[in-house]
Amino acid sequence: MTRIFKPDSGQTLEIQDEGGSAALTIETDGDIALTQNIYLAAGKGIYFDGGTTSANYLGGSDAYEEGTWEVALTTSGGGTIAVNTSFNMCSYIRIGNLVSCGGMIMTAGSTVGAAGTLKFSLPFAVASGSEWERYFAGSCNFYNVELGSTMWFIAQSIPGASVCHFTGMVNNSAYIELADTTIAAAGDRIGIGLQYITS
To answer: Residue 3: inside a domain, yes or no?
Structure first.
């Protein structure tokens, strides 16, 4: 059985809180006005624009999240760079599939293992794409890191991976390469600011 609550013409339907103030108001055109918080059960969310698929959905554990992650520095050749455990955390905010992240870390040593392009770990994997739409660019900062002849870099996400690398602003094929132990040493600082889409 369906119970229908319908206000008289030109009047709104109002639910009040215990103090007598409007908590929920249904306008004559069907719009709903809320003056209090909405609490959704765990795993529940909201579908927007009449949709019923994940493309229109915001909810569950991915609706809004703030946190930190422990950064790992690696190379494309499989090498690693030790990170100072007192300065190894960066922060992020995730709203749906949009991730905003950044911070600065300090190295604790030079490259160990095979050299290659420097990679900075991210809190979530970057969404894959069919073309170049998932190569998001952000800012980066270096202190004492040997950058070679290219002086200006950007942080760039790698689709399908949980890392970003650093590419030249003028020559995007010029990456920061850790070719020897002199490029990254203990006490060097590397920072990023990046916004990207995760899956």
So the answer is: no
